[in-house]
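Lab channel / #folding
Pinned by the channel admin:
"Please post every new chain as: sequence first, then the structure tokens as a reply. Keep commentary short and put observations after the output so the thread stays searchable."

First post following the new format, from NK:
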Amino acid sequence: MSRYLTDFARPSGTLPPRADMSSDAPVLTLDGTWRFHLAPSIAEAPDGFHATDYDDSGWTDLPVPSNWPMHGHGKPAYTNVVYPFPIDPPNVPTENPTGDHRVTFTVPADWSGQRAVIRFDGVDSCGVVWLNGVQLGVTYGSRLPAEFDITAALRPGAENVLAVRVHQWSSGSYLEDQDMWWLPGIFRSVTVRLRPAGGIDDLFLHADYDHTTGTGTLLVDGPEDAVVSVPALGLTGLATGVTHQVGEVRPWSPEDPALYDVLVATDAETVSLRAGFRTVKIVDGILTVNGRRIQIHGVNRHEHHPDTGRVVPLDVVRAELELMKRHHVNAVRTSHYPPDPRVLDLFDELGFWVIDECDLETHGFEFVGWRDNPSDDPRWRDAYLDRISRMIERDKNHPSVILWSLGNEAGTGRNLAAMANWSRDRDPSRPVHYEGDHACEYVDVYSRMYADHAESTLIGRGEDPSGHRRSLPYILCEFAHAMGNGPGGMLEYREIFDRYPRAQGGFIWEWLDHGIRQDGFYAYGGDFGEPLHDGNFVIDGLVFPDRTPSPGLTEFAAVFAPVLIGVHPDKVDVKNTYTYRDLGHVALAWSLGDRSGVVASGTLSLPPVPAGTSAEIPLKDLPLPSGPASETWLTVTATAAKALPGVPAGLVLGAGQAVVHEPAPVVRSTPVPADGLRLGSAVFEPVHGRLVKLGDLELDGPRPHIWRAPTDNDRMDDRGTGSLLRSWKEAGLHRMRERLVAITPSADGLQVESRFAPAGTNVGFTSTVRWTYADDALHATWRLVADERWTLTLPRIGVRLALPGSLTSVSWFGRGPGEAYSDSIQAALVGAWTSTVDDLQTPYVYPQENGHRADVRNLTLRDASGAGLEVLGGPSFGFTARNHTDEDLEEAGRRTRIPARDQVFVNLDLAQRGLGTASCGTGPLPPYILTAGDHVLNFTLRALR
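Reply from TO:
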């Protein structure tokens, strides 16, 4: 085995790290088609492939940048924590896929005699580089840049041969155990850069803002003979190495990402940077920027594309960041490595607080008790310091970066402390973050993952047992896990962030489902034959693999809306939760709606409410209904009256509503008596007592239904242990049996009593439905009473009925238009909504409970002729409607395996368990946990003709 593979991840031959900058010096991109050969091990890789006269005609073509498994060479593999090779540091397996790359290029003849470098922005995991047969060195640090001096080996004006041998496994792999696909390759750009004599190799831009005076200062560390200009401020000829007072400036923030072009020039080269004036400080335990406490509403972002792996086109990145802005995301943690350098430019331009995280994770050592963990092994110290220096030097000029993160889930130890000290020495203007330092011995913020609401409240109140931690800002670098249907409980976290100044927000794990596109579905762990994998744990984003928003992102936008609106009978309370911006850009509108839709609308006058303050807007002369009109809701919506960076005009910035007219009580005629198994136009069958016909409509049910297709949070409850679902299944909740006790006709209706219980136990439920028929409608009072010995919580309480598959058109008055669950309901407003059965479904990559609509007053399902069924609540219910059962969903495992039946299965729910975030966090809060007991659901069925 080549010795460099076990050299404790220390690069060789690389140049000192420096800032990523835009220069007028010549640059040649080598991105494009390269020649490629993959061998299963080093021993089987071709000898001498780096020679200029090597014959690569038998090789294949491969695009660079790329991850070679995404182009049919080998296979992707997914693990979350476990290393896919033996933990034997610094050694790696002999079976080590080795990808050899070759490309030819030519630089102008006038480069002769001038210095040139080649830059690799990302090579996973280790690369050996040759130019024209001359070995330049070895790269480590997959997601960090590496530069080599090629002056001596370069042939200006002639053909040059670049050869790179990339190994999937190296000692560096022990430092890169992040939760993502293992995807080797040259996956970021490769460039050749002329470095003119007297040019500018590096710059460090310091642009500070004094919030007390509104003025900025500018310091550029660079060559002594360089001059600095800021055209927008009328500044020219400034010296480097000197702090300049630049007068009044617009401070940079996500709310107003004001950037100033800065030109730094010598006689040989001009470099352009973008300055954002802002000052980051921790004051009395509060993280401030420009003198104000900030609150982080963030996401963790990996680089992933369903077709190209970690190669994400820049237009796709811009679109996803704009999507974040439209959903009120104001911060990104670059989990768990620095992104493509161009992404930082977009963070600056569009406006995000950024925690820039180092390419470091050793999580798999947890399985061996952290024994031999590199974080505390002095042999790895150089590699740790190399990684932090390459990140900070590359990204130091970006105003969006407000915290440096040492890495993720790498235990603790002296090497991490050394990284923190190096960071502070090099850049004291940014605090240091690392969640794994639980005692906060060498970090500046107290960071946690998935601390629950109760603990976060305790920390916010200053009741943490550690006095030192109490003096630090508290940030949840991961606080809700967006896996499948969820997360629930975001609103209660925001309330904690709003209530306690030290609790300064957090980041959702994570932004994107990491599915890999296959024929008709998205693949996850295990789909490529991995012997070790973590299944669909990689499918845990707020957007689906194609970057379509999930209901979780819609809920995030509602919870973290910048304008909070409270609606009252005589006024509207408007709270501005921006940190810096007033509401001068906001328009306020109202509408009145009932089951027929919007019946009246208008606008409200809104003063420019300053940041962090509130205003009361009186309600006058609204055309409120009177008399027996139907239930009416007043909705007030704040929208952007003009476009902002990344935010289009018309974007909803907040909404609130309240009922302003209650419906008149229902007065029914005298119920008709039962005629055996007939009740009006309703017909029941004698074996189970189920309703089988209502007028001309044939149906089956309703019967008790307490099961749901488990969500990821149900399946992995209690932080991945699966104890909840295991308890449910051990109790048989998914295989309940029904025994008819009695069907009792009477003069005013029909009563059906059943025993509802799982096999193998002597506990269960009594189900009683009291049916009455009046006014051409069938009324049900359904009661479910648990035995006293029943102790388990329940997935849902409701009934299910089957309708003809032709009933594809759905309309309802209730919360919508999207799905809603008890602890994820802020995005769903009460209104009149329409859909199809197909469009009610949410296409979670892993099939599970979805599509529930909440607080529904009435529901209709119709066929093309308009015939069908109406369901009225007493007063309300939740529903799902689909062409498959919950059992079908649970058994599918893939969306392509969900059967399409010729029936519509409608669940009418009294309640469902909340979603929580227990796939990697806390379960639902107590108000959203569904306990057994005595429950009653009232509803009315009417056949539509």
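NK: Residues 204-268 form one domain.
TO: also worth noting, The mean pLDDT is 96.
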